[in-house]
Amino acid sequence: MSGAWTFVCAGAELLPGEMKSVFDETTGTPILVLNLDGELYALEDVCSHEDFELSAGIFEPADGTIECVLHGAKFDVRDGRALCAPAYEPVAKFPVKREDDGSVWTRDDRE
User: Domain named Rieske: which ranges (predicted)?
Assistant: First the structure.
């Protein structure tokens, strides 16, 4: 079980339209944090179609999606749901918090 939060970055380092990947040392999970119009979202940094990092893909803030460069699967960054083939399963979504000092944190909260 997880519980420890993972530091992502200072808030000023993750501007709208940008993304940053981190590694949750507690669970061994790669996590991708995306800034969509000032709202922060965190997804597992692994395409559900094939084991490939989403952080290598294309983040489209205009439609709130990220596309895996390997086979073109797209996911909604707000909830992780798969939007087109070849992916049919969602990617895991994780909590994100912003501290008073502006720092950004996330964690793999799966049991």
Answer: 6-105
